[in-house]
Amino acid sequence: MKLQKLFVATAGLMLAGASAIAQSKPTVAVLYFTNSVLGAKANEDYAPLSKGMADMLIQELSVNTGIRVTERDQLQRILEEQKLSTDGKTDPATAVKIGKLLGTHHMVAGTFITDLKGTTMKLTVKVFNTETSEIEFTTSGSDKPDNLFALINKVAGQINKGLKLPDIPKQVSEAQEKKAEKIPYQAIMLYSRALNLKDSGKKSEAIELFSQTVKQFPQYDAAQKELDKMKKQAGN
Question: DSSP assignment, residue 147?
Answer without folding.
Answer: G
